[in-house]
Design goal:
The complex is a heterodimer.
Chain A (H helix, E strand, L loop, with lengths): L1 H23 L1 E2 L1 H5 L2 H11 L14 E4 L5 H11 L39 H14 L6 E6 L6 H12 L5 E7 L8 H4 L5 H7 L3 E6 L5 H8 L9 E6 L18 E2 L3 H14 L1
Parallel strand pairs in A: 2-3, 3-4, 4-6, 5-6
Antiparallel strand pairs in A: 1-7
Chain B lengths: L1 H14 L3 E6 L7 H6 L4 E4 L3 H13 L3 E7 H7 L1 H9 L5 E6 L17 H6 L5 E3 L4 H11 L6 E4 L21 E4 L4 E5 L3 H16 L3 E5 L2 E3 L3 H10 L2 E9 L4 H11 L7 E7 L10 H7 L4 H15 L1
Parallel strand pairs in B: 1-2, 1-3, 3-4, 4-6, 5-6, 8-9, 8-11, 11-12
Antiparallel strand pairs in B: 5-10, 7-9
Chain lengths: 274, 311
């Protein structure tokens, strides 16, 4: 039952992304699709949030550091009740609140304006440290991209998180193995990625987000509670995950002037696949 | 000045547990007493300025008032994106306590010379920029910074500087202090150049019989436009003195006000600072300042010559 419901939610998220792209005629669809399962697990099962009081002190914090994956993020925020889904219509428009990268001040539930890669994890370190100072139990989850891990500031933040013993900080790495120009392996190899995070002082885990995504739920339920270390979870995902013809095809990394034809074929593939 | 300001931050922290200090691998034993007295408010991070600015934004958006301390160039040039995007767009209460504004670190070479920091910070919407003239003014600024909403760039100048500020003049962020009423010439100065401005004014009066006013513009943003416009009504020449490139600093800020003012008789205007360059000399601060003609003697000559050429 849980599996079925989860799959339904993931499909709904992807269809929301397609609708946003239809309104905005652009967007990082493939980068949004690779994080759908992770976001649904976080927002449906893990994060302690109150959409009626988005800035409630004891909430968990979530930062989408790879801000270009924002379309899936907007979907889970809206479906959680932070704002109406009618906001999707304003995606990337002059009077809209949902841009091609998220802006904290415009979006209830959004904890950080991101888009300049390598920033979100440091903000998360500050937020997690603040929870320690204030003796609150809330956790801070930061989702970073694999390409984003090319940024030196990510590793500065990793050193600091470990030094400050931020066991309430959880880094999720969307390891979809592609960045803008090509395969991460060919542009700027991250391997051995799990060992890198371990070497920086993190408890590390890996989850296959295609074959067994719900393992992430089990893993995150009590994450960090029996450790002094921050946690890094390497999420093995696929760029464009869920739509066979998009998977691994970089022409879908970022698209502008998206046609109805393209969106319709994504939509029918999604509906047909499920 | 640095120590006086840090002491004042420590004093604030003792009374307000929302005050957080973030240092970037500062000198051995820096603020040990702070660390001991307020361990949850003191964090000495590594040599990782970008992370520190992001962290500060995270802490500040959760309600803390965060003072970051490291060298000016590494804060402004290296962390520009973090300051603009993480701190300024959210108007967060982060204070950038920047050591070595200008050429304080002259012997260390161009990597450590902050001659473009004001220009960089001026380009960030909502950034408050304050450059006190001496250690007592720094103490007044730190006290005022506790309640100020939004980010502040605090530019430090050298230690052991001559004290020119006076308690009775008060201190308010955004409000210039008139040290000498405007005459035929008004000198607008900031930082350690305020002291030099007073010296130059004295010499111009004694040697050339020219009445000269001096305004301490400690706040470059927000800029006290009325004070500048008032000086413009009274003086036929306005000059600016700053330990910064003439591009984008105090001179540019004052020049913008003057050029947009609607006065019938707009005064002549001249900026004095480093020419548009990265100083490539070593040596002590005073020697570099003299090398670029910003010492009292040279400035007196230049300003008097300019004034005479206008009359």
């Amino acid at each position: 039952m849980e599996q079925k419901n989860f799959e339904k939610r993931c499909l709904q998220t992807r269809l929301d992304v397609v609708e946003m792209a239809r309104h905005g005629r652009r967007g990082h669809i493939a980068s949004s699709f690779s994080i759908v399962e992770s976001l649904v697990i976080l927002f449906d099962y893990i994060l302690n949030l109150n959409p009626k009081d988005p800035t409630w002190d004891d909430r968990d914090r979530f930062i989408l550091s790879k801000g270009h994956g924002c379309m899936s993020y907007y979907s889970v925020l809206a479906r959680k009740g932070f704002f109406p889904t009618s906001e999707f219509e304003g995606f990337c428009k002059l009077d809209g609140n949902l841009g091609g990268h998220p802006t904290k001040e415009k979006i209830p539930g959004c904890e950080a304006s991101t888009g300049s890669l390598g920033h979100g994890l440091s903000i998360g370190v500050g937020i997690a440290l603040n929870a320690k100072i204030d003796k609150r139990n809330s956790k801070c989850f930061v989702l970073v991209g694999d390409g984003e891990c090319n940024e030196g500031s990510i590793w500065e933040a990793a050193l600091s998180a470990s030094q400050n013993k931020l066991n309430n900080l959880i880094v999720l790495v969307d390891y979809n193995k592609y960045q803008s120009y090509g395969k991460t392996e060919e542009v700027c190899s991250l391997e051995p990625l799990t060992d890198k995070w371990k070497a920086f002082g993190f408890d590390t885990h890996e989850v296959d987000m295609q074959k067994s995504p719900l393992d992430l739920k089990t893993l995150l339920e009590n994450v960090g509670e029996n450790s002094e270390k921050p946690t890094a979870v390497i999420l093995h995902t696929i760029k464009g995950q869920g739509v066979s013809f998009m998977e691994g095809d970089l022409k879908y990394h970022h698209m502008s002037k998206i046609t109805d034809e393209t969106l319709d074929s994504i939509k029918s593939t999604l509906n047909g696949d499920k | 000045m640095r120590k006086r300001g840090l002491l004042e931050i420590f004093n604030l922290a003792k009374k307000n547990n929302k005050i957080i200090f973030l240092g970037s691998d500062l000198g051995h034993k820096t603020l040990d007493d702070f660390k001991e007295a307020c361990p949850n408010q003191f964090y000495m991070e590594g040599i990782s300025e970008q992370n520190i600015v992001g962290m500060a934004a995270g802490l500040a958006q959760e309600g803390k008032i965060v003072y970051i301390n490291t060298i000016a160039t590494f804060l402004t040039r290296r962390c520009f994106d973090q300051i603009a995007m993480d701190v300024a767009t959210g108007n967060h209460n982060v204070r950038l306590y920047a050591n070595g504004g200008g050429v304080v670190y002259a012997p260390l070479g161009p990597t450590h010379l902050a001659v473009d920091d004001i220009a960089l910070m001026r380009s960030i919407p909502g950034m408050t920029i304050v450059h006190p003239s001496d250690s007592e003014e720094m103490a007044r600024l730190i006290k005022a910074s506790e309640k100020w909403q939004g980010p502040i760039y605090i530019r430090l100048c050298r230690g052991g500087e001559t004290q020119t500020s006076q308690a009775e003049n008060g201190f308010e962020i955004g409000k210039a202090i008139t040290l000498k009423e405007s005459g035929e010439i008004t000198i607008c100065a900031t930082g350690v150049m305020v002291y030099r401005a007073l010296e130059v004014a004295k010499k111009l009066e004694e040697e050339f019989k020219i009445q000269v006013g001096v305004i301490n513009i400690h706040s470059i943003a927000p800029l006290d436009k009325p004070a500048i416009e008032e000086a413009a009504k009274r003086s036929s020449l306005i000059v600016t003195f700053e330990e910064h490139n003439i591009t984008g600093g105090l001179g540019s800020a004052v020049g913008e006000v003057l050029s947009e003012s609607l006065l019938p008789n707009r005064p002549s205007f001249k900026r004095y600072g480093f020419p548009d360059c990265y100083p490539d000399k070593y040596g002590q601060q005073d020697l570099i300042i003299s090398h670029y003609g910003l010492d009292t003697e040279t400035l007196t000559k230049k300003v008097s010559k300019l004034y005479r050429s206008l009359n």
